[in-house]
Amino acid sequence: MNKVTIIAADGYQLSALLGIARNNLGKTIIISSATAVKKEFYLNFAEFLITKGYNVLLFDYRGVGESAPENLRASEAYMHDWGILDMNAALNFMVNEVGFTDIVWLGHSIGGQLVGFLDKKVHVKKVIMLNAALGYWGYFPAPMKWIVWLLWYIISPVLVKIYGYGTMRKVGWGEDLPKNILLEWRQWCMSKNYYGVFLQKYFQKPLFQEFNVPITAVYISDDYIANDKTAPMMQQFFPNTHFQIHKIEVEKFTSDKVGHTGIFRKKFEKSLWNELLHLV
Length: 280
Hints:
By secondary structure, the protein is of the alpha/beta class. The protein has one domain (2-135, 206-279): Alpha/Beta hydrolase fold, catalytic domain (Rossmann fold). It is built from eight helices and eight strands, in the order βββαβαβαβααααββα. The protein has helices at 43-51, 79-98, 110-113, 144-163, 168-171, 179-189, 196-203, 272-279; strands at 2-7, 13-19, 27-32, 54-59, 103-108, 124-130, 215-220, 243-248. α4 (144-163) runs antiparallel to α6 (179-189). The radius of gyration is 18 Å and the shape is globular. This is Alpha/beta fold hydrolase.
């Protein structure tokens, strides 16, 4: 895969990786990352897709990985910028600069939740939401919900106050995040309506009313975040699209823990990767 730079509408530069399949079948996938996960985490899976004939784009949201400023304290980015600006920049790059359409959008967690902000959705033929879920902490099973409660109500505000940004590495939750991104994420996850309040302010309705691209919501059976309650609840935000739900029962494929992010680990190439590919 080759490094490329994507310019968002506000001029922000996003770091990305583009892979073109040699046996190009005219299929293209954009992988949109989970929160605090940099693009390189998906590299092995992307290369697997390329061998199967897919063109693939990976990119870092502003504030994450190689799209982060040297000083995270200086970042003024918000989480909603990832959907409104960065995801649209990635889609526009593939359509306008590279010339690909009929794109499959594979959104992991927040990367699926924010697809409703895509403007040129006519160029997206389907969305795979992987482990995308309504993130309210109270809908998680015990004891994890109490750990997440501690993170949102006590730990994260203290860390932001001390360091001036979200030191997620210290709590084992991926890459560090700019202050506003972490605090907006926290605000959403403390609400039973999740980001509905923000959508109401942005669209004057708490839904992605105009989004009509077919969605397949895939979740992993041992993920406490995207679970039997929270994964189906994402459908309420997309009332005007064909919405399917598919649960992957991991015990049929492996005795290993998979969870929220594990499906992209190379050890699942012969099992879970093929299962996911069938849904694309």
